[in-house]
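Re-run with default settings, no changes from the original entry. Doing this only to confirm the output is reproducible before filing.
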Amino acid sequence: MKKFWIKTVNIILIIGIIFGYNQIVLYRQKTEEVNSLQAKLKDASTMVKNVENKANAEQSLDNSTEENSDNNGYKDGTYTGQAKGFGGQVIVDVAIAGGKIDSINIVSADKEDKAYFDMAKGVIEEMMENQSADVDAISGATFSSNGIINAVKQALEKAESR
């Protein structure tokens, strides 16, 4: 009879341990699922904020472009500016027509590395579109593009002061 009770108690203990283990496993699965859903919610929230920020930036850019085109007040003519690039002085001519930037031409950049300088020339198109020299430098050609940007800024300052 004593063996019967020992076996019964052992079976009850084993069933209890299995039941407890299953509860722990379920708890961990639910916790992982909650954490996963929270991470997805955070990612979605970040994505929504990024889209809102981008929309606001585009709207702000549209507004500033309109303000810049209305308030530039540049005097017509061709103005020269120069600034230090990666390899030396970058000299540009900026042509103003109708109070707006008509063209930006590189006059001299003899000591610039051709590959980097060719990449840096991308800022010219952006300045033409924005009608402003307030643009970001090209990544990978930062010094060369900053040379172009600063030379154009100098030329535009001359166009404003006349």
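Residues 32 and 65 are 48 Å apart (CA to CA). Residues 1-71 form one domain.
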